[in-house]
Design a protein that fits this description.
It is a single chain. 35% of the residues lie in helices and 8% in strands. It has helices at residues 40-50, 68-81, 86-94, and strands spanning 7-10, 13-16. A two-stranded antiparallel sheet has the order 1-2. The model has no long low-confidence stretch (mean pLDDT 82).
Length: 97
């Protein structure tokens, strides 16, 4: 029976992300369909909104939007001036440091 699974390509090998229900040495046909590339900036914003860490503007029409290049430059500038990595901040905040 056909199955659709997620796999990661690492060091020349496709590694399934979940166990397969196949007998050993079973030959299979594989169709490669790459996952769509997600804009990490949009992904991060959606996560922060979901966690309640940011709120959308009350009047979005008055907010100027940044291009992907401008967002990347801002992120790079913030990262360059950061004293700690995000993971260090989270660990410290949880009191597990």
């Amino acid at each position: 029976m056909p199955q659709i699974i997620m796999a990661v390509y690492e060091h020349g090998i496709l590694r399934p992300l979940e166990p397969l229900t196949l007998p050993e040495n079973q030959k299979v046909l594989i169709q490669i369909i790459p996952e769509p590339v997600v804009d990490k900036g949009d992904e991060i914003i959606q996560f922060l909104l979901k966690m309640g860490m940011i709120t959308p503007p009350s009047n979005p029409s008055k907010v100027s939007s940044f291009s992907k290049i401008e967002r990347r430059n801002l992120a790079d500038a913030l990262a360059k001036n950061a004293k700690q990595t995000l993971s260090e901040i989270v660990i410290e905040d949880r009191g597990q440091w």
